[in-house]
Structures are given as structure tokens and as C-alpha cells.
Design brief:
- By secondary structure, the protein is of the alpha/beta class.
- It contains six helices and 14 strands.
- It has one domain: Rossmann fold (3-Layer(aba) Sandwich), CATH 3.40.50.
- The chain has a seven-stranded mixed β-sheet, sandwiched between helices. The chain has a three-stranded antiparallel β-sheet with strand order 11-12-14.
- Strand 3, helix 4 (109-116) and strand 4 (120-124) form a beta-alpha-beta unit.
- Helix 3 (29-66) crosses helix 6 (209-225).
- The longest helix has 38 residues, at 29-66.
- It is globular, with a radius of gyration of 21 Å.
Length: 296
């Protein structure tokens, strides 16, 4: 009865739409939703440990060892947001003049800052309704996503064809977990990106050996061509503590092509205190930590 009155009274609808939101605070909705999801993930992880403890520890040891950054003296600059949406970019000689960014959303700080520095930016996202209003005019926007060729998504090879980039380019992507079936497309390219910065999602052990093996093999293949130079956990995601490592289920990753850089011989442990969500005081800061003397 109450709702039928509201439906019939258009004026009352306008009043409610205008004034009710002023009394409600949804600013932490995304954070609280993330906490619930993280708790569910951690409960599932603890349940699986009872049955598959040794197998899980081995897998996390393997994947965390693959992600250890090399020792280097490169200067890193945080480009974009200081929280979620920003990335550690290496300031190398012959820095890429052109950048392809995939998975824009409405956080356009990275693209705008890179464009202001004088680089050519081509950004792709099929999930936004239209070109974000805050995106600078000189940034090239395509309402297409990365995937299999369809009306909404195209392959990475076709993305590069649209930009007409020939060489010396950088790639940034954050496509919310859709990357795992697509990362093999990196190796179909004629010219590989000099630098890759990205978010990798779902770095959890799953009760599916095919998926677990696929994640490991994909990272191994990428590492044949690239060095890991920076890693930072995203504290929107669940924190997983295994026998030999502690890491978030989502990580920011910076890679550089091996033929562009010669690392030092010894690796060193790197730690970051970057908050992806500064209000997430319940959880810890973003983390990636690997303990010494691992055996795989």
C-alpha cells in the first residue's frame, strides 16, 4: 500500500529522490562490500587448508617466488591515484612514447597525467556508458574491451592495430579478473610492450588444478620475456597467509622487457606500504611478503 501511494504521487517521488540521499551515506559501500567478499574468501581458504594444506602451501610458495621483484636501481614514479588506480612506473631510458590502457572505468588520473607528460594515450573500455567527462580531450578513447572478437570486445592484436602503434609502447590493464584467459594474446603481438603495468586478480589457490596450473604457467611464460620490478598488494582484496608467504589476492605488478634492462645479480626483498583504500583501517596495508628458505 505504501509503495503504491509513492508510485502514484510523482511529486512525492521527486521529494524522496532529492532529499533522502542527503540523510544516507554510501561512501564506504565499496569498502564494506569488499570486506564481506574478503571474509568469504578467507573462510573458504581456511576450509580448504584443512583438506589441502600441503598442496596449498606449495602452490603459494611457487607463485610468490615467481613474483619476487629483481634487484634494481631504477627510479619508480607513482603515476595516477596514490591509492587504487595508481601504478609504480619505471623511469627508463627510451621510455615508451605511446601507451595502451585497457579497463578505464571512471578513474582517469593515470591517462590524464601521462597525456600531460606528452605521451600518446589510447584507452579502451566497453563497460562505461560513454567517454568519461574528466578524460582529457587529447586522450584517444575507444568503447571496446579486451577479449575475443565480438561487438564489444576485440583481441589485443586488433587493439594494437587500431592504435597503429609500431614499436616502443607501454601497456596498462585492469580488467577485474578477466585477464587470465587473455594473457596468452601478449605473445601473438609483432611488437611486445616495453613496460607492462597491471592488476592481477584472483591470485588464490582454487579447488581446480587446471586453473591453478594455468595461472602458474601463464606467469612463467610472461617471465621468460619480462622482469618483475615492482609488486604491491591491493588491500581491497583478501590477505592470504600461507606457510612461506603473505600476499593479497589482487596485486599491482610492474614488468619490464628483459632486452631493455640488465638487473643486478642478487635479488632483494621489497616491501610496500601503499594503501589502495586509505579508509581500510580494519585491514592491514597492502602487502606482498615472502619468507626466507623456501622449499618447493
Amino acid at each position: 500500500m505504501t509503495f503504491s501511494i509513492i508510485e502514484r504521487c510523482k511529486y512525492l517521488q521527486k521529494v524522496l529522490v532529492k532529499y533522502v540521499p542527503k540523510f544516507l551515506d554510501f561512501t564506504d559501500y565499496k569498502l564494506i562490500k569488499a570486506r564481506v567478499k574478503n571474509l568469504e574468501t578467507q573462510v573458504e581458504y581456511l576450509q580448504n587448508r584443512i583438506l589441502y594444506g600441503e598442496q596449498i602451501d606449495t602452490w603459494y610458495t611457487q607463485i610468490s617466488k615467481l613474483l619476487i621483484p629483481i634487484n634494481h636501481n631504477l627510479k619508480l614514479e607513482r603515476v595516477g591515484s596514490h591509492s587504487d588506480g595508481g601504478y609504480n612506473v619505471p623511469l627508463i631510458k627510451n621510455f615508451p612514447n605511446s601507451w595502451v590502457t585497457i579497463g578505464l572505468g571512471y578513474n582517469v588520473e593515470f591517462e590524464n597525467k601521462m597525456q600531460k607528460k606528452g605521451f600518446n594515450i589510447y584507452t579502451f573500455d566497453h563497460t562505461v556508458k560513454t567517454r568519461p567527462a574528466k578524460l582529457l580531450k587529447n586522450v584517444n578513447f575507444f568503447k571496446l574491451g579486451w577479449g575475443v572478437n565480438s561487438t564489444e570486445t576485440i583481441s589485443l592484436l586488433d587493439i594494437i592495430k587500431k592504435t597503429q602503434i609500431k614499436s616502443n609502447w607501454g601497456l596498462k590493464f585492469d580488467i577485474e579478473g578477466s585477464e587470465w584467459p587473455l594473457l596468452h594474446q601478449l605473445f601473438d603481438l609483432h611488437s611486445h610492450p616495453s613496460i607492462i603495468i597491471c592488476e592481477l586478480h584472483d591470485l588464490y589457490w582454487e579447488n581446480d588444478n587446471l586453473k591453478n596450473t594455468h595461472k602458474l604457467q601463464t606467469i612463467k611464460k610472461i617471465k621468460r620475456m619480462y622482469y618483475v620490478i615492482s609488486i604491491n598488494g591491493n588491500n581491497f582484496s583478501a590477505e592470504i597467509i600461507s606457510k612461506n608467504s603473505t600476499m593479497n589476492g589482487v596485486i599491482e605488478l610492474t614488468l619490464i622487457r628483459k632486452n631493455l634492462f640488465t638487473p643486478k645479480k642478487n635479488t632483494k626483498k621489497q616491501s610496500f606500504t601503499q594503501y589502495n583504500h586509505k579508509n581500510n583501517t580494519v585491514g592491514r596495508k597492502s602487502i606482498f611478503q615472502i619468507r626466507a628458505k623456501q622449499k618447493v
